Amino acid sequence: MLVGLLGLDFLNIPREAAQFGGASGHWIPVVSFGYAALAAAFILQFQKRFPGQTLLQAARISLGRPLAFVGNLAFLSVFFAWLVFAVRDAMDLVLIYLLSRTPLWAASTFFVLGVAYLSMGGLTAVSRLACFVVIPGAAIRLAMQLVAFQGVSVTHLLPLIAVRPVRLVIGGLSILNGFLPLFAILLIHPLLTRKERLGRVLFIPISIAAIIFYTAVAGTIGKFGTELTMLFSWPNLASVATVSIPYLVIEQLGLVFLILWIILFFVAAGWYVQVVAHGVRTAFPRIPYRWAAAATLSAIWAAGLLFPNTLTVHSAFQVLRQWATLPAFFYPFVVYIVSWIRGVKGDQY
Amino acid sequence: MPIHSSKLATAIHERLHNATDLRLASMADGKLYVSYIASLIDEADLRRGIIAPLRQVPRNEAGPDGIAKALDGRGGRECRNIDACVGDLLHGRVVIWAGEGETAFSFPAGKKAPRKPKDPKTERTIRGQRLDFIETLSESVSSIRRQIKDPHLHVDGLIIGRRTLTDMAVLYLDDVADPGLVREVFRRLERIDIDGIIESGYIEQLISDNPNSLLPLTQSTERPDKAASALLEGRVVIIVDGSPWVVIVPTTLNELYQSPEDYYFQRWLGTFLRFFRILGNNLAVVLPGLYVALVGVNPELLPTQLALTLAGSRTGVAFPLVIEVLSMEIILEVFREASLRLPSSVGQTLGTAAGIILGLASVRAGLVSDATLVVVVITAISSFSGPNYSIGLTWRILRYLFLFAATVFGLFGLTIFGLIVLAHAARQNSFGVSYLSPWAPLDLLGLRDTVIRRSIRQQNRAQTYHPQDTIRMKDGDGDGDEP
After folding, report:
1. Residue of chain A nearest B423, judged by CA positions
2. Does residue B247 surpass a pLDDT of 90?
3. Taking Cα atoms as reference points, which of B472, B312, B280 lies closest to residue B378?
4. Is the Cβ pair B409, A102 closer than 8 Å?
5. Is B411–A125 a contact, with Cβ atoms under 8 angstroms apart?
6. How far is residue A230 from each of residues A310, B210, B243, B420, measured CA to CA in Å?
7. Could you tell me which of A108, A141, A80 has the C-alpha nearest to residue A272?
8. Which chain A positions have a beta carbon within 8 Å of B294's beta carbon?
9. A247 vs B: CB within 8 A
10. In angstroms, what separates the C-alpha of B403 from chain A's closest C-alpha?
11. Which of B375, B422, B429 to mutate to test the interface with A (most CBs of A within 10 A)?
């Protein structure tokens, strides 16, 4: 979960926070954490009502099969679209910073094949790899972002409340996409079968992620100011990249940070593909998991190559992240509320 | 086929096709017969332990009872038929029978020790035992028994191989090892139906969870102390007669970087050694790839001065960087293989001389750059830093794939390929234990014995192998810290 949160933030949260919160954008991750905590509490409640069942199964009980089919497809489509843009945006980032002479299709194919191998191993392989990278990944990322605080000017972060509070409330929603993996968990159920673990699985990762997001936003806005932060495509990376450590073999810290983020993104993408493939399998039970994963990845790879340029991808992805993901957050609420009104519950496990 | 004592000698000769090392002797004026295979037993021990007592048997008592009485306490057993007699002879036992009657006995005799235990060749340590396992099963078992004198130590025998009838022993501590693990080991061993087991490597491949994986999913060692400590962790040791390498299951990637020596020094000294071992191993795997990625594909990532120095050293080199590195690596592999077969008296000198002369000549001829030579030599030396030969071989192969990924995709390729290797490791299990344990799934107690060595005073065993008895040290430190 934590790897998912840290690998799928797209180093973009500072810009979205600056857009809504201005100099006080650093409060936006705090507000967003509040929403995420509410969402986690809701997932716990959802689990009580539909024990051991995925959202897609619960939707069938709550909304009835025809409506659930449409709703589930829409919910999965958001994740699928998200993955298409995510992989393409990450590849653009890689091509710009690391592989300026390599064609997009080559880098994308290599990456997608790697993710395919990981996701074909199933949830166990993905979780194990995530466990392997999570402690060093989170610790190094936090350390780097703290190091990037050098050069921060407090005046860029003042006044403490620079915009109307309602802007902070809306801004919190706009970066809630950083916590999207929280809802992806509803697509799979092995993690939901042990209720006593669910609190740990949900609350610890979102708390750590919120701290890292806060340092990212405060460090970036504090360093560049609101206007400049909004000009960068990947402001979080730009902020860390200003730090250099002389005599290190790779002296630009930004590149080490980028490699670290690629590692986190790779694992997170593997997890997402796995989750979406499970979702596809739940929606279409006749499709075996491996075929579902292969189809999902092929579609992600092909669709990612269709976009003409980085600018288009980046702008479209920003809109998708900021607003189009919100329905994905509200769909589980709809399923829950309808089931409550209708007085239906999930089967006991 | 029942035994007719008068015809037993002929029957044995026929079954063994008049083998030249088959011996038959008569005693007590032809009333007692002794048969054995001379190449399998220690004849001095036979004369002392079996022949001498039999000579004391009076002629009128030279029958089955006389044999049993004279050799009481020698571990004899009755051979119920000719097949059993022949089988016992082939296992290095002495078959004795009286000229009349239908009873034959077999007795164990001292076996020829192929050699004396000596300093392990591939798992050398500065501190610790100077003994390795030898090719005799009983000797190998006794070298573990000398360390663990616990009645809970089970030594269960098995014979595998239709033609080789290879003796094997499965060792475990019945109050520590997970019973499920022991059952699974026996299940996998008992389903092996093969004509022969020549070395323990056969067993490793036949019981592995994934024989096609490049990663070693079982651990082999030639050190008795390593095997003994594995037993104390709740693992199972398999010894194969004729092999100086014993197999330990289950294993994890973490185990393959641990040396017994780590625990013989104070905790932080052990940690220091382990840290550099892991560092050396990582260098051996990724250094050539990293060099090609940074110099050939992503030079912009290097500090300017370093990039210029490296570029300067390559001036006048005839080949592209990757060919340069690859050719040096291949030559080094050939050297390494050749040096294993060179006579030890000249091997080291010849290797050093050839390395220096060839290295200098290659640089002067413009075939390779100084920097490449440095990288290749560091890689070669680092590749010997790991204590496990099998994982070293794996990394040697993967190094070329890392090199290929780095050549095509630079630092990005190196990162993604590294993740693919890790993803592969994450998919592997060894007898139900995650290969990436204790990192994945996260075992906080087990994590105390990874890069940092655990404290000897740590109270509990790691949960990695699901031990029954979880307490290692009574009144030890619950948190595992040194006092």
Report:
1. A118
2. yes
3. B280
4. yes
5. no
6. 17, 51, 68, 35
7. A80
8. 249-250
9. yes
10. 15
11. B422
User: Which of A1, A97, A132 best tests the B interface by mutation, with the highest count of B CBs <10 A?
Assistant: A132
Tell me the Cα Rg of chain A.
20
Confidence of residue B286 (pLDDT cuts 50, 70, 90): very high
User: What does the alpha-carbon distance between residue B393 and residue B383 come to, in Å, rounded to a whole number?
Assistant: 9
Instruction: Please judge whether B426 and A246 are an interchain contact, meaning their C-beta atoms are less than 8 angstroms apart.
Output: no
Whether residue A127 lies within 8 A of chain B, CB to CB, comes out as: yes
Any CB–CB contact under 8 A between A197 and chain B?
no
pLDDT score of B102 more than 80? no
Which two tokens mark B470?
């979880």
Q: How far is A239 from chain B (nearest CA, A)?
A: 17
Average pLDDT over residues B205-209: 94
Q: Which two tokens stand for residue A136?
A: 């060093």
Mean pLDDT across chain B, nearest whole number? Answer: 86
User: Which residue from B416, B423, B426 is facing A111, i.e. has the nearest CB?
Assistant: B416
Round the CA-based radius of gyration of chain B to a whole number and report it: 29
Helix (H) or strand (E) holding A94: helix A65-97
Query: Confidence class of residue B160 from pLDDT cuts 50, 70 and 90?
Result: very high
pLDDT in tens, B117-130: 777 877 888 888 88
Alpha-carbon gap, residue B256 to A31, rounded angstroms: 47
- Convert the pLDDT of each residue in A259-275 to its tens digit: 888 998 999 888 888 88
Separation between Cα atoms, residue A342 and residue A34, nearest integer Å: 29
Of B412, B417, B423, the CB nearest to A99: B412
Instruction: Tell me the average pLDDT across A301-317.
Output: 82
Say what the ipTM of the complex is.
0.88
Q: Tell me if chain B has a CB within 8 Å of the CB of A259.
A: yes
Rounded to whole angstroms, how far apart are CA atoms B38 and A73?
79
Cα–chain-centroid distance for residue B163? 23
Amino acid at B313: S
pTM, to two decimals: 0.85
A331/A313 Cα distance (integer angstroms)? 26
**C-alpha B243 chain-centroid distance:** 9
Q: With bands split at pLDDT 50, 70 and 90, how would you rate the model's confidence at A96?
A: confident
Element (H, E) at B154: strand B153-160
Q: How far is CA B63 from the centre of its chain?
A: 46
pLDDT at B148 over 50: yes
**Region A147-170 average pLDDT:** 81
- What part of A 80-119 touches B (C-beta under 8 Å)? 94, 98-99, 102, 106-107, 110-111, 114, 117-118
Per-residue pLDDT at A310 exceeds 60: yes
Cβ–Cβ gap B423/A252 under 8 Å? no
Strand order in the sheet with B104-108: B22-27, B32-37, B93-98, B104-108, B77-79
Interhelix angle B370-382/B267-291, rounded to 10 degrees, is 140
B409 and A263 within 8 Å at the Cβ level: the answer is: no
Q: Nearest CB to A252: which of B294, B297, B301?
A: B301
pLDDT at B2 over 60: no
Of the candidate ranges A92-96, A332-336, B248-252, B347-351, the one whose mean pLDDT is the lowest: B347-351
Q: Compare all CA atoms of chain A with the CA of B438 and give the residue at the minimum distance.
A: A132
Test B303 with A249 for CB contact under 8 angstroms. Answer: yes
In the prediction, which pLDDT does A349 show? 37
Contact B276, B367 (CB under 8 A): no
For residues B298-302, average pLDDT: 82
- Best residue of A91, A117, A129 to probe chain B, by most B CBs closer than 10 Å: A129
What's the first-to-final CA gap in chain B, in angstroms? Answer: 68
Instruction: State how far the Cα of B16 lies from the Cα of A71, in Å rounded to an integer.
Output: 79
Kindly report the three-state secondary structure assignment for every residue of B257-273. HCCCHHHHCCHHHHHHH
Q: What percent of chain A is modeled with pLDDT above 70?
A: 89
